[in-house]
Design goal:
With 359 residues, this protein is of the alpha/beta class. Helices cover 27% and strands 22% of the residues. Strands 8-7-6-5-4-3-2-9 form an eight-stranded parallel β-sheet. Strands 10-13-16-15-14-17 form a six-stranded antiparallel beta barrel. It has a two-stranded antiparallel ribbon with strand order 11-12. The longest helix is centred in the N-terminal third of the chain and has 14 residues.
């Protein structure tokens, strides 16, 4: 039996997006960011589909161990690093790359003897995000401590993270890059700077490694630019079905709170999709879904398991008619805008009860 709601994952689109990113990266190697269950697309299946990436990146040790348990031996970068001797030992055993962003992590490395030498290290500089990393004034001392580890780490690289790259030619990005250049002047290590927005933005970044996340999954990091215009294809299509068709008389309301009142006699399709599936309750009036490939506006509030759409202008809508919440034909960025959020959140919010189906 076909599930009423499902997230269809197009691995061909995923690999297409990787090729577009690689071309845009102009020779830089690509670290595919698959944290948070690959932005809702399925951690292991996405990592397998991205076998041509130069490395993978996850946030936490548990995600990296899940990749290894699935037999995925690709170079894997742990973006938050480790915080105990036990975690460091596991990371070393699995040959993980570690981001080092705090002095307590250097303390661990200094006390770990030869364990740490099995990990490649990425020393993070905080150039203005003010989240993780060593401030430029702290960086020389942190670098000296890493260089003095004995035995020396297997590899050492530098990275930073951009706070406003999604604003295109942004002065904050330029200021961050200048801080990074000043901090690393005369230091000959490979660096990673660009996220998805940085890769496609107007500010030249000049790094050896790029770290795309959202763009891999076929969504645009920019408010003023569609994914299609960047050459990207949506990887996830959240699909469902009509489970009832209601005839609602003029003046009657639909859903909790009676927030939508029919301006005329209307035909309303009830769709098996709600905030229990990851479709945000905050989707506002004006948001649409695709009912059998045609746009239909939402009516009333999204509930836990269902939402309603006005299909009065459409013919042939019946129980079983397919509905697209976002994906092919309806960009996730558009749905996110109506929900007052960002595409990242919608993709990551897809509930575990929604099956992921390969296409």
């Amino acid at each position: 039996m076909r599930p009423l709601i499902r997230a269809v994952i197009n691995s061909h689109a995923l690999r297409h997006n990787l090729r577009i990113i690689r071309a845009r990266a102009a020779g830089a190697r690509v670290i595919a960011v698959v944290k948070a269950n690959a932005y809702g697309h399925g951690l292991v299946s996405t990592a397998l589909a991205l076998g041509d990436a130069d490395a993978l990146a996850v946030a936490r040790l548990e995600e990296a161990l899940a990749l290894r348990a699935a037999g995925i031996g690709a170079r894997t970068l742990l973006l938050e690093g480790v915080f105990s001797f036990g975690e460091l030992a596991e990371a070393a055993h699995e040959g993980l790359d570690l981001v080092v962003h705090d002095a307590t992590q250097i303390d661990l490395l200094e006390r770990a003897d030869a364990v740490a030498t099995r990990c490649a290290l990425w020393l993070k500089i905080d150039t203005g995000m003010n989240r993780l990393g060593f401030a430029p004034r702290e960086f020389p001392a942190a670098l000296a401590r890493i260089r003095n580890l004995s035995p020396a780490p297997r590899e050492l690289r530098l990275l930073t993270h951009l706070a406003c790259a999604n604003e295109r030619d942004d002065q904050v990005t330029r200021a961050q890059l200048e801080r990074f250049r000043v901090a690393t002047r005369g230091i000959d290590y490979e660096v990673s700077v660009a996220n998805s927005a940085g890769i496609f933005g107007a500010v030249p970044l000049g790094c050896h490694w790029v770290r795309p996340g959202l763009a891999l999954y076929g969504a645009s990091p920019f408010a003023d630019c569609s994914a299609q215009s960047l050459g990207l294809q949506p990887v996830m299509t959240l699909e469902s079905s009509v489970i009832a068709v209601r005839h609602v008389a003029r003046g009657e309301s639909v859903g909790y709170g009676g927030s939508w009142v029919a301006p005329r006699d209307s035909q309303i399709a009830i769709v098996a999709a709600g905030y229990g599936d990851g479709v945000h309750r905050s989707l506002a009036n004006g948001a649409t879904v695709l009912v059998n490939g045609r746009r239909a506006p939402l009516t009333g509030r999204v509930s836990m398991d269902m939402l309603a759409a006005d299909v009065s202008a459409l013919n042939g809508v019946r129980v079983g008619t397919p509905v697209v919440l976002w994906g092919e034909g309806l960009p996730v960025e558009e749905a996110a805008q109506h929900a007052g959020t960002i595409a990242y959140e919608l993709l990551c919010s897809v509930s575990p009860r929604v099956p992921l189906e390969p296409r």
